[in-house]
Design goal:
The complex is a heterodimer of chains A (136) and B (490).
Chain A: E1 4-6, E2 13-17, H1 21-33, E3 37-41, H2 44-54, E4 58-62, H3 70-79, E5 88-92, H4 96-102, E6 108-111, H5 116-127
Parallel strand pairs in A: 2-3, 2-4, 4-5, 5-6
Antiparallel strand pairs in A: 1-3
Helix pairs in contact in A: 2-3
Chain B: E1 16-17, H1 24-27, E2 32-33, E3 37-42, H2 48-60, E4 66-70, H3 76-83, E5 98-102, H4 104-126, E6 130-134, H5 136-142, H6 146-163, E7 166-171, H7 180-184, E8 187-196, E9 199-209, E10 218-224, E11 227-231, H8 234-237, E12 250-251, H9 256-261, E13 266-267, E14 271-276, H10 282-290, E15 299-303, H11 308-314, H12 319-327, E16 330-334, H13 342-356, E17 360-364, H14 366-370, H15 378-391, E18 395-401, E19 420-429, E20 432-442, E21 452-457, E22 460-463, H16 468-482
Helix pairs in contact in B: 4-6, 13-15
The chains are: A alpha/beta (136), B alpha/beta (490).
Chain lengths: 136, 490
């Protein structure tokens, strides 16, 4: 069973796809705090299964993952007319040139380990500033 | 049937997976056995992750595909960042020959079954030859019982068999012995690091290896830019069959009168220990021995105290040594006074001896080996070294310093290991210091055991023609000893 998780929706929705549990938790926490609705998936196949349902505004996608890696996922995404315009931030421990040899179609690349300010800058460059969620 | 592959015909040699780690395949007597399941255990900081990655990067050079699955707290990105400094690290290979994935989510969400499922899928989909599971302790902790863990290990073994993959489990030291996983795997390699004085000493030990003999006991290693470098214990590397052909040929020591004293020169392939306090001329003697090296009989200076530049300065008045150095007949190797491992020194020395086909070796001196990092007595090591050098056809002179400046007895503890023993000492007589040389032992040969006076001149050591000079010196010492003390009164 491949898992995903949701936080309470408010503002733009970001799908975070990464096989590393620790990375998912931290990114989800930071982005939710900024007002994004965050959905996570631990591999490309799990993410594809959720995309039509949640319709993310942006995808933060890890390259090296089991089951379906970032390259395969991106190819499937761009082949789907309903999804091909979703902006993608590709992340990897590998340098950008290695990633570009294997796939294209992502908008911004962030090399791991990245500072979270850089992730936020990249998201804001693609989506604009977030809408802060209402205080309870 | 995958299981039948493990029950190989006795006449078939088991296929080996070379580790690519210097010294490790020698310890394993050929490398890991293909299709096996191995544990590499060690406390944090002992080099398990480096070793696991070294094996992986070596395998991909021959076109194999490797899967590295992490269950550890360190992210893949952080691990790769730390590995970038290593020479074996090839960034271009990542994502091609070597794939890194995290198994932690699968383990957390679905337990051992989920992890097994992930491994099965990835191994088959990517046609993987090597699997590394880093952080096996997390899998052990996730097991609901010892039985649960046994089933996991067994299924892992079956999966590896069916894919013809070799699996390495990296884990912390196994606390309760024997544990489930210990009894089921094909091999266990232990890594450890202990503090010795103000240094740390790393040790590798093969606890178990099915299907193969291996070099038993502890072997030291270092973690350097090449990754782990293992130095197999010399005593284990030395062949058991004697390699001495029993020849009785002699070679000149470079000191003509000493050649006469020892019965016509030093026996070829022998080890001669020059014992004496600092300043008696041991190094000078050794350099004279080396000065007789030629292109056909190359020489090697292996020293710890004096740098090659200082030796060159010393040799300016030694015409023959200068010529030998200039012609390349003599090479100098200086081991800087840093933290060497004992077997590392032996490795450096024997490599140079074999590469240059050295026939005359001067080791200056035994103390350099004594000061090396080690967790065992030096005598068995030195006996093994003497045997190896003899087998390589090398005639060796080695110096050993003793603390006593003046005295009748000086011991190195090596007299039964070395073939020939020469004592150089000071005798105090009146207000003068005299140098005396004597031969204490020449294996299987008669020799002149008389004491002789000697001096150090610009041409090197010059020994007196006979013992008369030494007798006069020693007589005057004896006479003084018999004189009554003269009391000094006010």
């Amino acid at each position: 069973m491949e898992t995903t998780s949701d936080s309470r929706p408010a503002g733009k929705t970001i799908l975070v796809v990464d096989d590393e549990f620790g990375v998912l938790e931290v990114v989800e926490y930071i982005l939710a705090d900024l007002g994004y609705a965050v959905v996570s998936a631990i591999n490309g196949r799990a993410a594809l299964a959720r995309i039509k349902e949640i319709k993310p505004d942006l995808i933060v996608l890890d390259f090296m993952m089991p089951v379906m890696d970032g390259a395969e996922f991106l190819k499937a995404l761009r082949e789907d007319p309903a999804c091909r315009e979703i902006p993608v931030i590709m992340t990897s421990a590998l340098p950008e040139k290695n990633i570009k040899e294997k796939c294209s179609g992502f908008d911004i690349f962030l090399r791991k380990p990245y500072k979270y300010e850089h992730l936020i800058e990249a998201i804001e460059a693609l989506l604009g500033k977030p809408v802060k969620k209402q205080e309870e | 049937m995958p299981h039948n592959k493990r029950m190989s015909n006795k006449s078939e040699a088991l296929e080996r997976i070379p580790s690519g780690v210097m010294g490790l395949d020698e310890v394993l007597e050929g490398g890991f056995i293909k299709g096996g399941l191995y544990i590499i255990e060690g406390a944090p900081g002992t080099g398990k992750t480096v070793l696991g990655n070294q094996i992986c990067f070596h395998q991909i050079k021959s076109g194999k595909v490797v899967l590295y699955v992490t269950l550890i707290a360190e992210t893949v990105a952080r691990m790769l960042l730390n590995l970038r400094a290593m020479n074996f690290f090839d960034e271009g290979a990542i994502g091609n020959g070597i794939v890194y994935v995290s198994g932690f989510s699968a383990l957390k969400n679905e337990g051992l079954r989920g992890l097994l499922h992930l491994l099965r899928r990835e191994v088959l989909a990517r046609r993987v030859s090597i699997v590394v599971l880093d952080g096996f302790a997390a899998a052990s902790d996730a097991a609901s019982s010892a039985e649960d863990l046994k089933v996991f290990v067994q299924q892992l073994q079956i999966q590896a068999d069916s894919a013809d993959a070799t699996v390495f489990l990296l884990t912390n030291p196994i606390e309760s012995s024997p544990s489930s996983e210990e009894t089921m795997v094909d091999g266990i390699i232990s890594l450890s690091s202990t503090v010795h004085g103000s240094s740390s000493l790393r040790e590798l030990y093969v606890r178990k290896l099915r299907g193969s003999s291996y070099l038993e006991g502890v072997h030291n290693y270092k973690i350097v830019q090449e990754g782990l470098v293992i130095y197999p214990r010399l005593e284990k590397r030395v062949g058991r069959a004697p390699r001495d052909n029993g020849e009785l040929e002699r070679v000149t020591s470079g000191v003509p009168r000493l050649d006469v004293m020892v019965g016509g020169g030093l026996p070829r392939r022998s080890m001669t220990m020059l014992v004496g306090p600092s300043g008696t001329g041991k190094t000078t003697f050794g350099l004279q021995f080396l000065s007789r090296a030629t292109a056909a009989e190359p020489g090697l200076f292996f020293g710890f105290y004096e740098t090659p530049a200082r030796i060159r300065t010393k040799s300016r008045s030694f015409t023959t040594l200068s010529q030998a150095l200039d012609s390349g007949a003599v090479e100098m190797m200086w081991q800087a006074p840093t933290e060497w491992l004992l077997d590392e020194l032996a490795d450096n020395l024997l490599k140079a001896v074999r590469q240059r086909k050295v026939r005359r070796l001067f080791i200056d001196g035994l103390g350099g080996f004594r000061k090396a990092l080690r967790s065992r007595a030096i005598e068995p090591f030195f006996a093994a070294l003497v045997e190896e050098l003899r087998g390589e056809g090398v005639t060796t002179v080695c110096t050993a310093e003793v603390a006593e400046i003046i005295g009748p007895t000086m011991s190195t503890g090596m007299s039964d290991i070395t073939d020939n023993h020469i004592l150089m000492r000071f005798i105090e007589a009146g207000a003068a210091l005299y140098r005396i040389i004597s031969v204490l032992k020449v294996r299987d040969s008669s020799f002149d055991s008389g004491l002789r006076q000697f001096s150090i001149t610009e041409e090197g050591i010059e020994i007196a023609e006979d013992s008369r000079g030494a007798e006069l010196v020693l007589s005057s010492v004896a006479a003084r000893a018999r004189q009554p003390e003269i009391a000094v009164s006010r």
